[in-house]
Specification:
Length: about 240
């Protein structure tokens, strides 16, 4: 069920990011910090944006041996972000270790953990001929989502077009966080399989991740409002 729009802060550094956020005045959109900004500005940018009152999805897509990912998640858990992610490809053991790293000493867990299944930049041919995975791409995505569910994760990153199938296999409470969203008639950029915010709502996405249609708009605040009203409908 549609919960919110997450703006992808794909900026090269702190200054451009803070300039962008200052346009929103007292409003505090939900934002995504990915590798580009995190590697340029470090954990301080997460603390600074969090202190302003934004909810944050930290999109670092971890993938390593379970022990290393457990430790990395322990370090990242101190940032108190709302959602963090990893690659389901790293195995169920890695996903379980990641969850352990996010659990505080009192047994509570503040940060939700979601998995990337198969990157949307990977096509069927690459999956079969280069990565030597013989199963159809759609089955691989669903199997990875089920592994994430079984490991105790809170959801997956997927296409809005896959959200319904993920919910029917993994439960309606299992989060679907979906990029690849464009306004009707808008520029697609490098996204191929796109849906509009209204379609993503109909397809059952929980969160849509929207970058350039908002960050590149002449009036980003108006674009964000339009996106929210289309996606959330009457639930705003
Ligand atoms: O600008 P745009 O709306 O295409 O941005 C989408 C965001 O979602 C980017 O930050 C991109 O890295 C991210 N993303 C994606 N497809 C995935 C996973 C993440 O587009 N499968």
């Amino acid at each position: 069920m549609a919960k919110d729009v997450i703006i992808a802060l794909d900026f090269p550094g702190r200054e451009r990011t803070m300039d962008f956020l200052s346009k929103f005045g007292d409003e505090r959109p939900y934002v995504k910090i990915g590798m580009e900004l995190f590697y340029a500005a470090g954990p301080d940018i997460v603390r600074e944006i969090s202190a302003r009152g934004h909810r944050i999805f930290l999109d670092l897509k971890l993938c390593d041996i379970p022990n290393t990912v457990r430790g990395a998640m322990r370090s990242l858990s101190a940032l108190g972000v709302d959602i963090i992610n990893l690659h389901a490809f790293g195995s169920s053991a890695m996903m379980r270790a990641a969850l352990e790293g996010l659990i505080a000493s009192d047994g509570s867990r503040r940060t939700k953990l979601i998995a990337v299944t198969v990157l949307t930049s990977t096509d069927e041919k690459t999956l079969h001929d280069e990565l030597l995975i013989g199963h159809p791409l759609a089955d691989t995505v669903m199997s990875y989502a089920e592994n994430a569910r079984a490991a105790g994760l809170d959801g997956v990153v997927c296409s809005p077009l896959e959200a319904g199938e993920v919910h029917s296999r993994c439960g309606s409470g299992f989060l679907t966080v979906t990029p690849g969203v464009r306004f009707a008639g808008g520029e697609h950029g490098d996204q191929v399989r796109v849906t509009t915010p209204a379609m993503a709502r109909t397809l059952g996405s929980d969160y849509i991740v929207v970058g350039r249609p908002i960050t590149g708009a002449a009036d980003p605040v108006a674009a964000w409002r339009l996106c929210r009203s289309e996606f959330l409908g009457g639930e705003m």
